[in-house]
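cron nightly-structures :: item 1 of 1
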Amino acid sequence: MADSVGKKYSNYGSTSERTEVTDLFSTNTAVKYMSYEYLKSEMEKNAKVKMYTPEEMKVQFSAIPANGIVVVSISAPTVKSVNTKWWSAFITDESGKVVQRYQPEWSVGTYDIVNGSTFWHNSFSFELAVPPGQTFNVHVNTGVHPDQRWSYKIYPNQEIK
């Protein structure tokens, strides 16, 4: 797992870079960020398909979080390991100052069986409480193994090519 430090992936109009990965048996995380701009663009596409009236558009746009949304995905070998009550996330700015903490509600995951092995998956999301700067960091912890952490540097509105 340590070899995935530095790995970058782009989605939802932004880029995530793994900066810290823990070596925890078959457990992994991924973090994605959806900016206001991305969410607005998607809403505009949906509005055309759904033929929203101007009034409906106004209501839909007002529901978009101004600072965007962080999505954390979890994959692990047991159902307990992906229950979101055991997970938390915190945001730090570029200087390392904690600017937000998030503890999700209890949620049981789903599973896939691949070549006879069961893999459990879950996710949680939250609104970013502070405006994102040029970059920010998302740190993900598990209460099942409290000494373990995954960290990601987020580059808002920047996609790698």
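cron nightly-structures :: done
The chain has a mean pLDDT of 90.
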